[in-house]
Amino acid sequence: MKKYVPMLLLAVVGLAVYLQAGVKRGYQTATVITIKRLDTASRFAGGNPSDAPMHADEFVYEVAIQLECTNYVGRYESAIDYLPSAIAPNREVDVHVEKHWMYISLNGDRKIRMGIVRQVRIRSNKCPVKS
Fold first, then answer.
1. pLDDT value at residue 16
2. Within 10 Å of residue 76's Cβ, how many Cβ atoms?
3. What string of DSSP letters covers 71-117?
4. What is the predicted pLDDT for the residue at 81?
5. Collapsing DSSP states into helix, strand and coil, what is residue 33?
6. What is the average pLDDT value for the chain, to the nearest integer?
7. What percent of the residues of the chain are helix, what percent strand, and what percent coil, each to the nearest 5?
8. CA distances, 31 to each of 6, 41, 65, 68 (Å)
């Protein structure tokens, strides 16, 4: 019996380390629902086009994710037309949500910061209302 206690203890510690390594501290696993590219074209309606404000070449995406019983929509902005391949519909990502910001962890230590545009609580039997 005493022979099995150290092996059992080692197995429990190994399992705890394995589970801890799966999700980084403060991050939770969420699912990307949709990605929508926003049009950033100039909406100038004045008389002389030279009076129009400068148009920045910026690419903007709205990324909707589901984290537990809440859908978050974050705005991702890039100077080049690039959206990381890790952010794709129906893929799981590690997310940390703060008050107005959402951080998505990519491979390694790289993080993407998005401003939260809106959040909607899901109403279903799987997500009961907390009282």
1. 54
2. 22
3. EEEEEEEESSS---TT--TT-EEEEEE-SSEEEEE-STT-EEEEEEE
4. 83
5. strand
6. 80
7. 15, 40, 45
8. 39, 30, 5, 9
- Identify the residue with better confidence: 91 or 40: 91
Integer Cα distance of 24 and 95 in angstroms: 9
Residue 105: beta bridge partners? 94, 111
Could you tell me which residues come within 8 angstroms of residue 52 by beta carbon, excluding any fewer than 6 positions away?
A: 42, 44, 46
For residue 74, name the pLDDT band (cuts at 50, 70, 90): very high
Using an 8 Å Cβ cutoff, are 36 and 62 in contact? yes
* Number of residues written out for the chain: 131
Mean pLDDT of 49-74: 82
